[in-house]
Amino acid sequence: MLISLKKTHKEHLHFLTLQQVKIVEDFCTLAIDFVDNGPNLENYTALSKKLEVETDVIQNCIYGITQLLLLSCKHKLSDADFRDSILTLGFSSDQQVVLSNLYSAKQDEIHAVLEVSIPEPHYDDLRWRFEAQVSSRSLLNHVVPVITIELTTKTNVDGTVETEKCNLQTDQNNLLHIINELERALSESKSRHSRKIQRALKN
Q1: What average pLDDT does range 23-35 have in this prediction?
Q2: Which among 32, 105, 118, 183 is most buried, taking Cβ atoms within 10 Å?
Q3: CA angle, 196 as apex, 80 and 114 as ends, to 5°?
Q4: 78-84-85 Cα angle (round to 5)
Q5: What is the C-alpha separation between 56 and 88, in angstroms, rounded?
Q6: Which residues are within 8 A (CB) of 29 and not within 5 positions of it... i.e. 6 or more apart?
Q7: Would you state the pLDDT for residue 21?
């Protein structure tokens, strides 16, 4: 069985086919680090300067290798099928040996990750109430605003939906900080890197 890659994926891997075997080994090392620890922009920048290309080219190549591993593991390619698949992409025999060694070394780990199903809580409802302490025995004209929040989430565990309510209380400054963090996370989810990871997981 041979896997079929999208045009953009092939373009990202094409740069790797033009490199010497030692450089391919460097890319494989970065791909392993990406799988284990996430992106390392410092290393990408160093390699981009060495090869005199844009950092995006290095990143896309790393993502291309990672997606190649994910797709191969998802389709449970044998070592022989993996070798045949990458040879059709234009890799030389020596480059193919390096990539095959990477696949052999990481496929058990990636298979284990792909087979794990982690139930995640999902948003269901949010209720809030604004409260204020307007005075106390020591401070007659002291106003302390407090926001009380009831967050309801649902989690699907083996076909059974579990509902959980969490009561939170915060002041204005912490609420603004939470809003800023959520907006930052939303913005990050729309970034090019996040979209690539989402596409890789869907394929």
Answers
A1: 90
A2: 32
A3: 50
A4: 90
A5: 24
A6: none
A7: 92
Structure token digits, residue 100:
């095959």
Q: For residues 168 and 174, what is the distance between their CA atoms, to the nearest angstrom?
A: 11
pTM: 0.55
Instruction: Beginning with the edge strand found earlier in the chain, give each strand of the sheet holding 122-133 in spatial order.
Output: 122-133, 144-157, 160-170
As a whole number of angstroms, the distance between CA 62 and CA 58 comes to: 6
CA distance 169 to 127: 12
Q: What is the phi/psi pair of residue 65, to 5°?
A: -65, -45
Domain regions of the chain by residue span: 7-115, 122-202
Q: Could you tell me which residues are beta bridge partners of residue 149?
A: 128, 168
Backbone angles phi, psi at 40, to 5 degrees: -125, 90
Q: Where are the alpha helices (DSSP H) in the chain?
A: 7-17, 21-37, 41-51, 55-74, 79-87, 93-115, 172-189, 192-202
Residue 45 pLDDT > 70: yes
As a whole number of angstroms, the distance between CA 33 and CA 148 comes to 42
Asked if 107 and 73 touch (Cβ cutoff 8 Å), the reply is yes
In this structure, what are the phi and psi dihedrals at residue 19, rounded to the nearest 5 degrees? -100, 160
- For the record, the structure tokens of 194 come out as 């996040």
**Token digits of residue 183:** 């907006």
The total number of residues written for the chain in this structure: 203
